Amino acid sequence: MLKNSDKNKVENYIQKIINGLLNDTNKSIVSGMSDKQVIDRITKATVNKISHESKMIISSVYNMLMNDTLSEDFFQEPSNKALFYELNIEKKLNNKFNFEVPTHINYKESKKELDTLIKAGNITIVTIGGIVSIKFKTFFPIGVSVIIALAVTFGIILLNNKTNSKSNINNIIFEYLNGIKKGLLAWIETIEIYYDEQVEELKKGMNA
User: Which stretches are transmembrane (predicted)?
Assistant: First the structure.
């Protein structure tokens, strides 16, 4: 798992992304856009931003984990270090989590995956007083496609609720982006666990 200092770096980076989206939204609100236009804009901007940032995030997380792993006494032995590199965990992560920016996002398939997680109780979308929030009940394997589907689905829910609510648009957008942040952090935790499992299997195989 990531060291606390590295976790903070990653979380700060994600917060920077969220802040950028929030600032853009505030400009849209000030410009006089309708609530519907604001929600449509933030939904599309979030999807585009996540799609482009995901590969950079996975690369940074992998490098942090790798540096920590290779600092262990076990991997000071050249042969052990060579076997680690041969394992090519970064390639496995890219293959497993599919971080290529898609030319076309299959929202229908992503929505199915999201619906499955909701039915299983892993994700709960809660509405209180017109404010929608996302709750992650338990850890679960999550891919970036689910975050994208979540961004779109959440945006639709926000729009529907806003038409029947007097909630401040700024509060609604804040809750929206907070939910996206939670999703990204859950996604990163999945990456950490997968990485640790790969390293542990390597060590067991070498000690067998």
Answer: 116-134, 140-159
